[in-house]
Amino acid sequence: MSNYKPNPTAATSNDATEAVREHLHHDGTSLCNLLEALDEPCGMDALFDLHGEFSKPFPDASTIETALRAIENLLSSQSPAYLDQLARVLNFHASEATRWHGAKVTDLLFRFRQLA
Questions:
Q1: pTM for this entry
Q2: 79 in helix, strand or coil?
Q3: Are 34 and 94 in contact (CB under 8 A)?
């Protein structure tokens, strides 16, 4: 009889990490376009950190969470007036994109917070 007991935290960490990987696969281009439009280097740096982490064989959940938190902070700090200005100048749905990506990043971060 085996004494193996699965580590539920490790499984949850893997699930959270894979959810981020899937989000970047499906919606990473849109997120990149938004971060470029916001023209805040910390947002692109965080996105590059995420991509760098996923290029590793075993991505570090803590690094992923930190990068997501930086993106969440950036998105939540945008003023409606600034987003409206971006929408006019760039012909881009900046407000809608910020709300959608902000909600998605918050959902992804919640998966990591469940680990604590």
A1: 0.86
A2: coil
A3: yes
pLDDT of residue 92: 87
pLDDT score, position 113: 84
Contacts of residue 67, Cβ cutoff 8 Å, sequence gap at least 6 = 46, 47, 49, 50, 53
For residues 73 and 106, what is the distance between their CA atoms, to the nearest angstrom?
10
Residue whose token pair is 């917070």 = 113
Neighbours of 108 (CB within 10 A): 21
The closest alpha carbon to 97, from 7, 17, 14, 30, belongs to: 30
Average pLDDT, 10 consecutive residues per value, the chain (116 residues): 47 83 96 95 96 94 96 97 94 94 96 77
> What is the per-residue DSSP string for 16-44?
HHHHHHHHHHHHHHHHHHHHHHHT-HHHH
Which residues have C-beta within 8 Å of that of residue 28, sequence separation ≥ 6?
47, 51
